[in-house]
Automatic annotation (TrEMBL):
All copies of domain RNase H type-1, residue ranges: 35-122
Natural source organism: Gossypium trilobum
Alphabetical list of Pfam families matching this protein: RVT_3
Protein name: RNase H type-1 domain-containing protein
UniProt-recorded Gene Ontology molecular function terms: nucleic acid binding; RNA-DNA hybrid ribonuclease activity
PANTHER family associated with the record: OS05G0353850 PROTEIN, POLYNUCLEOTIDYL TRANSFERASE, RIBONUCLEASE H-LIKE SUPERFAMILY PROTEIN
Domain of life: Eukaryota
């Protein structure tokens, strides 16, 4: 792989280019969904929350939802799903989460996962956003 930008094909790819000059990367950052999900151990209280921001990082809408009993991964995936539903009117969306496990399970689409229905819902929402 050469030094060219893998996003737009510019001669050189470096952080300054991607963050400031790459128009394609700027378009991808059109909307930002910040997600968090958490579980309170003592009583298994599970919830997810997030915010949707515009390209200038201004607040558009926030959300939260009680999830009943579930594992942390399910709360993260539910937050991603809820955020995508709110962003359906946007063209491009960037999802920010602190869960590498959630990102991996969405990318791999493990059919033996206990979260298969939730992952399939996320894939459907992502397809709607890409059209």
């Amino acid at each position: 792989m050469g030094p060219a930008c893998r996003i737009c094909g510019h001669e050189y790819e470096n952080m300054l280019h991607v963050l400031r000059y790459c128009n394609t990367a700027r378009d991808i950052r059109n909307k930002l969904i910040q997600i968090d999900g958490s579980i309170r151990a003592k009583d298994a209280f599970a919830a997810t929350s997030g915010i949707l921001r515009d390209q200038s990082r201004r607040w558009i809408i926030g959300f939260n939802r009680y999830l009943d009993n579930c594992v942390v991964l399910d709360s993260k995936l539910s937050g991603i799903s809820d955020g995508l539903k709110l962003a359906l009117d946007g063209k491009r969306v960037l999802i920010q989460t602190d869960s590498l496990e959630a990102v991996n399970i969405i990318q791999v689409s493990d059919h033996e996962s206990s979260n298969l229905a939730l992952v399939m819902r996320i894939h459907s929402l992502l397809k709607l956003l890409s059209h």
